[in-house]
Amino acid sequence: MALVVFFLAFERFPLSLSQRIEYLTLAVGNAKSHPVSAGGKHESAISFLTDLEEKLEVSQVQLEIFHTLSPRLQSQPSDPDLREKVELLERGLFNITEVRVLIVMREHLWLTVVT
To answer: N or C end of the chain, less CB within 10 A?
Structure first.
């Protein structure tokens, strides 16, 4: 079940960022509650859970950046670059490198990410 919900979070369905984070949170919860069999899958289950938790952390940073940029867009609605970034953040989940390169470095949001 965790794997299915994980894939839903990352698919290109028309979901909001909050909905994607909700799916990712459900995937983490499902992975934590799933009993691991002794058939040699313990390490892969732990690895999968760790990967999910890391992706959830990155998605929460992405959400913080989204909430930082959204008010700017309301005050600067004619800025196409800013609009593109906000829409990009809302459209899907990214890894930390993509978040850093696509958004943080261009908007000088280092303090938002670090704190």
So the answer is: C
pTM above 0.70, yes or no: yes
Q: Where are the domains of the chain?
A: 2-114
The rounded distance, in Å, linking the Cα atoms of 20 and 25 is: 9
What is the Rg, in whole angstroms, of the alpha carbon atoms belonging to the chain? Answer: 16
DSSP 41: -
Q: Output the CA–CA distances (angstroms, integers) from residue 32 to 18, 20, 26, 38, 61, in the order listed.
A: 21, 18, 10, 16, 22
> CA of 106: how far to CAs of 81, 100, 110, in Å?
10, 9, 10
H or E stretch including 12?
none
